[in-house]
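haha ok so turns out i had the wrong file open the whole time. this is the CORRECT one, sorry everyone. sequence first:
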Amino acid sequence: MAILLLLLVLALNFIISWANASYVGRYWSESKQVGGSFRVYIIVGYIMAIAGFTMVYGYILLLISPILLQIAEVDQETILMFEQLASDLIYLFCVVTIVPTGFYIWIRSLKNFFEKKTLANGLTAGYNTFAQLHNTMSVARNAPSAFGRVVETLFGGKGKKKDNTIIILCAILILILAIFGGYFTASAIMKKADREYDMFGDLQRRYPDYS
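then structure:
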């Protein structure tokens, strides 16, 4: 049941990340010309898409890798250490990217609501406020202990086995693979949307008399 719930959460995260990458891709080239806060907003969305895909790929790898370690006859204690370290590394990478960028999106949504008090802007600002508060509180509770475990595993631990160095490298490799997977997936979706959508052309079609 827990595995099924995790897969559902990962699927939802994948869909949201795909939507983010597709959205920023629609305005990627144009944002370079417009510049300013609009360009920052698009880059922030791109970073969040990468982080979202990284989380999905990271936890999928975490589900698969213990099976491979068991086949390799690695002892259970070492596997547990690997899982804890890899999950902490993935978690810390994601919160370091998602929380700061989330603050920018949250502030921008509040600004949009105060400038144009529409229902859509109000709902967006409300959701972003809830999400940012939830994420920030979660980081305050969990990030220090996750960071402490990573430092202890990498640099501490009396009587640490030399064989554990390989497990540490494997955990870091999981993070690197997840990041590369997130980057290439987000970039592919973004570039496809960039090729298929022309923001300036769409504006000209909507407002042919605008000059």
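The chain is about 90% helix and 0% strand.
again sry for the mixup
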